[in-house]
Amino acid sequence: MGSNQIGAGMRKKWLVKIKTYLERYILVSISDRTIIVCLELQRFDFDHNRQLMLNYLNEEADLLETLGLIVPLPTPFQQRVKQEAIIQTFNRKHLLLRPGETARRLYFIRSGFLRSYFIDDQGKECTTCFMRKGDLMISAHSFFTQKPAQEYIEVLQDCKLQSLSWNELNAYYADFPQGNLLGRIVTQKFYMLSEKRSMLLCTHAPELKLKQLLEQYPDIEQQTTLTNIASYLGISRETLSRIRSRNARMCVQSQNRTNFISKFDI
Question: In terms of DSSP bridges, do strands 95-97 and 105-119 run parallel, antiparallel, or are they unpaired?
């Protein structure tokens, strides 16, 4: 394969990764700001800005910056968030929440990777969602109703989190018009994630389930175990391993065909 082909492939790979990251970082994928950002990415000079791009992907997300991308925040609102938001770090395998506990805080992921799961009647772990840098992580029902949770929230990769309490969040609703707007957008986000999860489980073909998951989380296989991925997809680990092996063989065959054809390129 020629160097131009390799370069084009790398540019496409990075474009997909950054678009996926930005759509989640901004929280709302349907907005003028997101569209503008994605259009700008089409004109992004990958060859001359690779290091800038890498720095951007590696830097921590920030709660205020993310909220400000949704709606401009007045200075008093920003000052309150700065004063009240707590920053904490947690190691891999730490449980932020257990069944029977009430979710008291809303977490914003500055860095790291987390999941929520429950244990079914057969004693199997069922992963309900994955969350990464730039996402909000809560047990939605427990947090919004202030009733005991039925699920776990687990840290999969060492993380740094910013958090606000339920009381602080409700005070923002009362004190700032922007607080109500943000609350509505956050609620919509979790509703859409729940709907996407339900639709994924209704997809019968395991191969399609995995394809959709990898489109949403391109690096998930580096972030968590195959067991957790399989539990999210609603399939066995053995089925997942067979699909991955088959996909790997297909990639090798496709690469071999490309290499063969490239020999005849002028």
Answer: unpaired
